[in-house]
Amino acid sequence: MSLALQRTTTASAATLPDRWFLVDARGEVLGRLAVNLARVLRGKHRAVYTPHALCADHLVVINAADIVVTGSKRRGKLYDRYSGYPGGRTVRTYDQVVARDATWPLREAVRGMLQHNSLGRQELQRLRVYRGGSHPHAAQQPLAITFGALGEVQVT
Fold first, then answer.
1. How many other CB atoms sit within 10 Å of the CB of residue 105?
2. Distance CA 58, CA 109 (A)
């Protein structure tokens, strides 16, 4: 009887190729898009997903100003900050935040779905969100992708 050792393969940033994906956010719901973007940034769409390694692909999101929120979130969703000083609480609605920076709500939603450690910060650096339809990453030749009903990545 021979004892064959089973090997577990683990991914590392050195063994995984850097891939660039382009996502059009026009008409997408904020939370559903953020879940799918976080899944790609974590690397869970890959067959060699490793929780402690940087398996993320680069994501370029365009048309962030055209993201849809459902229900009464446009007026009812509040973004709360506190500076640490007395009277330093700042509360803004979704409309006020979008008027300042249309990319911030999506980036903040994705940030909240990633790990809150150094790996999560590295993954978030691979997300690039643009308000309009143009982006400066044409040299990387990003592949246009969409997300299926169950969050699977579909290259179009």
1. 21
2. 17
Exposed/middle/buried for residue 150 (C-beta within 10 Å: 0-12, 13-18, 19+): exposed
Strand partners, 145: 155
Residue type, position 33, single letter: L
Cα separation, 22 vs 63, in Å, equals 11
| Predicted structure pTM score | 0.91
**Amino acid present at 45:** H
Sole residue written with tokens 């994906």: 21
The domains located in the chain, with CATH, are: 20-69+101-155 (3.90.1180.10)
**Which region among 2-6, 26-30, 95-99 has the lowest average model confidence (pLDDT)?**
2-6
Long-range pairs, 95-103, Cβ under 8 A, ≥24 = 98/65, 102/64, 102/65, 102/67, 102/131, 103/64, 103/129, 103/130, 103/131
CA 144, 113, 67, 98: dihedral to nearest 10 degrees?
A: -130
Residue 72: half-sphere exposure toward Cβ, Cα within 13 Å: 2
* pLDDT per residue as tens digits for the range 70-95: 999 999 999 999 999 999 999 999 99
